[in-house]
Design goal:
By secondary structure, this protein is α+β, with helices and mostly antiparallel strands. The protein has a domain at about 1-55. Helices cover about 25% and strands about 20% of the residues. The strands form two sheets. Strands 4-1-5 form a three-stranded antiparallel β-sheet. A hairpin with a 2-residue loop joins strand 2 (about 10) and strand 3 (about 15).
């Protein structure tokens, strides 16, 4: 099973970087890596170059979930005008 690496981690003695396409079909903890978003199936591996570039563009333009997360704690106080 071809996988796309989303976060840096070490597997089989080598360092994997985001964007790498690897074969992880024999990994014991594959479901855990997918659920914690370290890897995802490389669905675009079977498509032609034009469709692959469109998928990459759509992924780059999509809003990131990391940017929309609010910090914990109280919201900032805004001065009230009288």
């Amino acid at each position: 099973m071809l996988l796309e690496v989303l976060k840096k981690f070490e597997a089989d003695g080598s360092r994997l970087s985001p964007g790498d396409i690897v074969d992880g079909g024999g990994w014991r903890n594959l479901q855990r890596l997918i659920s914690s978003r370290y890897v995802r199936p490389a669905e675009e591996a079977g498509y032609n170059k034009r469709i692959q570039s469109a998928m990459v563009d759509a992924r780059d333009l999509a809003p990131s979930t990391n940017q929309s997360k609010r910090k914990r704690g109280r919201p900032p106080r805004h001065p009230v005008e009288v």
